[in-house]
Design brief:
The structure is a single chain. This protein is an all-alpha fold. It has two domains: about 55 residues, no CATH class; about 80 residues, MazG-like (Helix Hairpins). The chain is built from seven helices and no strands. The structure holds zinc ion. Zinc ion (ZN) binds next to loops.
Length: about 150
């Protein structure tokens, strides 16, 4: 994402137009901070505010959020390594399940994040792909719910 944090904050202040309240005060606090540590938090916060103002969070919003947080790093890493990290994360989900770990939720979130990063690197709009494949029901039998034999 181009520009300094300050310029990004200034640009954003014109577009998110928060009302006075706790969120506004928090945003003002973030605005006074300039350390690198706050960058990711700021991106997540603004995205959450935008999602709240725009209605329900959609899968495409999640993909855009990953692009904002990791887009440059994902592009530098490339498709092959990003795909391998995604598969590695799937292994961590399996590991958490086998160990009956409470981390399975966060691990699934990480897997989704890596999948969305992979989509960003490959230029795939996953919400569009998902709806095109599943919105009419099971791709095999065409039914909702699916009537195929259980695998
Ligand atoms: Zn089916």
């Amino acid at each position: 994402m181009p520009g300094t944090l300050t310029s990004r904050l200034s640009a954003t202040s014109e577009t998110i137009s928060l009302q006075p309240g706790p969120a506004y005060e928090l945003w003002q606090l973030i605005r006074t901070l300039s350390s690198q540590v706050w960058k990711d938090f700021y991106v997540v916060f603004v995205s959450a505010v935008e999602a709240a103002e725009g209605g329900a969070l959609e899968l495409s919003d999640c993909q855009k959020l990953m692009a904002r947080i990791y887009g440059e790093r994902d592009a530098a890493r490339g498709a092959e390594k990003t795909l391998l990290w995604m598969l590695s994360e799937a292994g961590e989900v399996a590991d958490a399940y086998v160990k009956n770990s409470k981390n399975i939720g966060p691990e699934l979130a990480d897997l989704l994040a890596w999948m969305l990063s992979t989509c960003n690197v490959l230029g795939i709009d996953i919400q569009k792909e998902f709806l095109s494949r599943y919105s009419a029901g099971c791709p095999r039998c065409g039914q909702i719910p699916c009537i195929c034999p259980v695998l």
